[in-house]
Amino acid sequence: MKRSKLSHQKNQETRFGGRLGPQWMICLPLILLLLGGCGGGTPTAPLPTKGKATPVAKKTAEANKAAEQQEVAKQEVEYSYNPMGKPDPFKPFIQLTPVTAGARGGPLTPLQRYEISQLKLVAIISAPDGNMALVEDSAGKGFFLKKGTLVGKNDGKVTKILKDRVILEELYLDVYGQTKNQEVTLNLRQPEEGVEP
Description:
three-stranded antiparallel β-sheet; SH3 type barrels; alpha+beta
């Protein structure tokens, strides 16, 4: 019987790594002390005293609350966005918007029904009372231009007729909604080198 108890005790010792030596006996309390002291939690508040709070403590608590409320009110009122005079951030700022047909006073001429890019400058005629230009549409229909002739859907107007090009001015709306002038040039095609006309 004694033998079985001793063998059982040896089995227990070998199973759990043997008996704790004297060095572990000294270190164990230190480890427990360190683990117990590193709680990392919030410090406990002092227990409230029974009875009424002092008037000084009440006044300081009320003053702290009032200061916090004023701070929150300042943070809420500090910034306000005023969009007056600023462009709409959701509208594209690169796109040039042509002036609508409602700005024109009367019915459209045949030249005002075309885009300027659809017209091709064919010839320029010199005359004593001013140069004239001949333009064609894609179907080959010809039109004469003089200084001041209205051309294009965007209220284009002929400003100059030079010996090799015609300069027109078109109206468009910029990003701020203001009407601006844009200069458009129709160039006379020069015969290419090495190719007979």
